[in-house]
Every structure is written in structure tokens, then in C-alpha cells.
Amino acid sequence: MTGQGTIFEVRDLAIGFGERDDILRGVDLTIARGEFLTLLGPSGCGKTTILNLAAGLLRPRAGHVRFAGEPINGVNRNVGYMTQDDTLLPWQTVQANIGLPLRMRKVGKAEVASRVGRYLEMLDLGHAANLLPGQLSGGMRRRALLARSMIYEPKLLLMDEPFAALDAQMRHQMHIELRDTVKRAGQTVMFVTHDITEAAKISDRVLIVGGGPPGGIVAEYRLPFGEERDLDTLRFTDEFARVEQQLNRGLLDARSRKGNGS
Description:
The structure is a single chain. It is built from 8 helices and 10 strands. It is an alpha/beta fold. It is globular, with a radius of gyration of 19 Å. A 6-stranded mixed β-sheet has the order 6-7-8-3-9-10, with helices on both faces. Strands 2-1-4-5 form a 4-stranded antiparallel β-sheet, with no helix packed on it. The protein starts with 5 loop residues before the first strand and ends in a 5-residue tail after the last helix.
């Protein structure tokens, strides 16, 4: 993990919708600059809700939500947000799609070209710069979406199961490219998944979300693999298998708490 200081902080959070009971309650969470944090938990436990709080799309019923030390009081334009949805504009080329956030921010043409070129190279998309999204493979489309999410250098990248639609081999390749890209860019990431292996491979730290309702953070794991991990070999090691077992136990515990209010 690189960087210093806290970029996102939640204290004693409670959140729900309308007249319904809280989805999450008593949540404390921090993310350090440069950290790759994963929220792991069963579907419907509130993982995406936490991402939406960081994006300023939701307001809590109670507690404090801060970004870079300041309360979030509206849409947070300092975050990037990548979901499993394909939101590339089909009539624009790859390089035009990637540069879209910069053009919307009125960044000069020379700077747009420079940054787009950097991310095309970083994500091995240079040969596809002038192609349309319909001409890309699924993995290339994911890389283009990742580049577009990072191009304006957000302070925090939010990722909501972005590789869920990919097959196992392509997902593994995206894990390698994601780790490499965010490391080189010094990017902070909050990643959501319900996949234990995915969480174990790519994270610096994993928080397991579950229990309830209302749910909360039921376990925390700091992963021992370091920034220089080789994902091609790591997944076949005994240490990796032990981490998967730990996360599996934590996830089972989260599921066992669901519905009993604990």
C-alpha cells in the first residue's frame, strides 16, 4: 500500500431507504490513500450502498461520511465509478470514449491527447485506439472502461463487480492489468465483489459485509501478499489457499448472521 492519510471515512453509519429498517448500522470504515480495499459479502448486504455513499449519491440516516477530511454533501466529483455495465458510446472510437471525461471538464486538446495516449499504452489499447466498441472483445471493452474511469485521475476509484460478466481466464487477465494499472497510477480503490478468489488475489485489505438486517462490517483481513505479487503464480500457493479459507469462513459467518439481527 502506498500513500499516506485517509481518503474516505465512515463513522457510526446507519442507512436505509424510505420507511424501511436500516440496511447497515454501526459501520466504521476508512480507506488510506493508495490502498486497494475490497468489500466482500453476499448479494444484497449493502456493499454497493457503501460505494454510493462515497460517490455522494446517498445520504446516511446517522453517522459521519467524509472524503479527504470533508463531509460529503452532494455528488462527489473526486471519485471514478466503474460497474459491470457497458457504458461505452457505440458511435465513438476507443480513444474518444476514454477522453470523454476530460472533454466534459473542458481540458485542453493537447492535454487530452497526452493523457489518452498514456492510458492507451498503460492498458495495451494503442492498437485499438481508432476502433469502435462493437469491434472490441469483452476484455478490451473492460480495459477501455477502466481507462475512462481513471483518465481524470480521481482520488478514489469505486468498482462494483466490474468483471462479473467475463469468463474465468479473461477475469484473471483483468485482475493482473488492474493491479498493475492502479499501482502505476498511484490510485486508491474500493472494490465490491462476492467472489472470494477475486478478493484474495487483488486486495490489500478485505472487509466482509453481512449479518442483520441491519448489516455491518463483520470481519477484516489484511492480506500478506504485498504490492509486487505475481497473480499467475500466487493463486497456486499454499498461502493463497489459506487466505481463501479465511475469507470463506468469514463469509460463511456473515451469512449465518443474516436474519438474526446480530
